[in-house]
Amino acid sequence: MVFGGLSSSELTGPRGNPTVTLSARQERRQMSFKANRGADERTPLINGESSTDNGHVVRQPRSNVYAFFLDFHHTPGRDSDSLPVRSLAYTWHITKVTLLSNYVNFLLVMVPIGIVAGAMNWNPTTVFVLNFFAIIPLAAVLSFATEEISLKLGETMGGLLNATFGNAVELIVSIVALKDGQIEVVQSSMLGSILSNLLLVMGMCFFFGGLRHRGSNGSGTEQEFSAAVAQTTCSLMTLSSASLVIPAALYAVMNQNGSEDTAKSILVLSRGTAIILLLLYVLYLVFQLRTHSNLFDAERQAAEDEESEEPHMGSIAAGAVLVVVTLLVAVCAEYLVGSIDDIVESANISKAFIGLILIPIVGNAAEHVTAVVVALRNKMDLAMGVAIGSSIQIALGVTPFLVIVGWIIDRPMSLHFETFETVAFAVSVLVVTYTVQDGKSNYLEGAMLLGLYIIIAVAFYATPADALDQVHSLIMG
């Protein structure tokens, strides 16, 4: 979601939000690239670049070692006359660019270890931890490959592609859990993704950004973002909250009257509501990308001096990376979900805590850091876009889509969440709405959001493992 909007050429940005902008993507990519370069991107002695008389940067020859391992634009051998050499060089170039695309990719070493641990039936806790950390860099690579493809498709198609694959990790993990009958984990992970973005990420952005830009003592200042767009997205979040409250209210009424068709009625209501929410999400995309895109360009916040970003790999190569990483995520998710029951029994923690607190970390870690960094740079529209954009897609897109998937594969996935979860979600949306309605933020508001998130986390952690599980069994009939 773009707050304070950017130009149309900067659309199609990262995860789960078609208009989190190219500038936001550049922020994340530059953090990783500059860390590897060890100097400013125009430092001639490091980057091998010099300026021409016309002010254009001309790339000068670098050492072959640097070019082979660290150059994002060139790999020796790609211009060879030999097809095998050229093919191997291009394959390494794609691998190199992918590996160096994000700072969390050092965790990719966990992927083969986690798969081996799951295949050889290691201790369930070990399997869970290894695959937990394996999926984090896979999510970052998935986002990178999606961005590379979207750069070639234009703003509209690129935006839709990012909207489709933005929350792919959460979607894959949830489908695997749904197929395994772990409906409570699916519901908790969806709710957890929303709450982690609304409370944890936004709270950290407000808190650290507010401390950085607090002004002088006695003359404090606040960071600003587009209040109009914030209110629009909060209205959508309130709608999604209502979509959970209504099934809960219906369940309470029917259960009080002793109706025997309670579970069936809840499923019918949930599936009908899911279809409506998906239609509203499509309208939201059209509203944001096409008919009213001007509303998201109200306050330009893109850095005009940033270089335009060019793709580092072709569409076919990016598509291949996308397919391979998606398969790896599916395998790791299978082992991750398969170890949950044993962990619940051995550690005596509820499935709700695992789904609400732990699993959302998997797919969102890299984007969370990005949001905080841009908030520190006083680009609050971009930070709000990363924080709220993914929440909107989870609430209006992914969750109702999973209800439809459950309908197809005969799993009773519904929008009737456990009452405790529903109340936590409704209260969180209410607090966030009051916090952002003035279009300003400070570190105190950030501390409030973080405090609420910690309270919710502690509440679910303190809940006995069998308490919510028994309630969930009654809900499912």
From TrEMBL:
UniProt keyword Iron, yes or no: no
Domain Sodium/calcium exchanger membrane region intervals: 126-289, 320-461
Membrane topology: Multi-pass membrane protein
One Pfam family this sequence matches: Na_Ca_ex
Gene Ontology molecular function: any one: calcium:proton antiporter activity
Transmembrane feature ranges: 103-122, 128-146, 158-178, 190-211, 232-254, 266-287, 316-340, 352-376, 383-409, 415-436, 443-462
Function: Has a role in promoting intracellular calcium ion sequestration via the exchange of calcium ions for hydrogen ions across the vacuolar membrane. Involved also in manganese ion homeostasis via its uptake into the vacuole.
Name the UniProt record assigns to this protein: Vacuolar calcium ion transporter
Organism encoding this protein: Purpureocillium lavendulum
Gene behind this protein: chaA
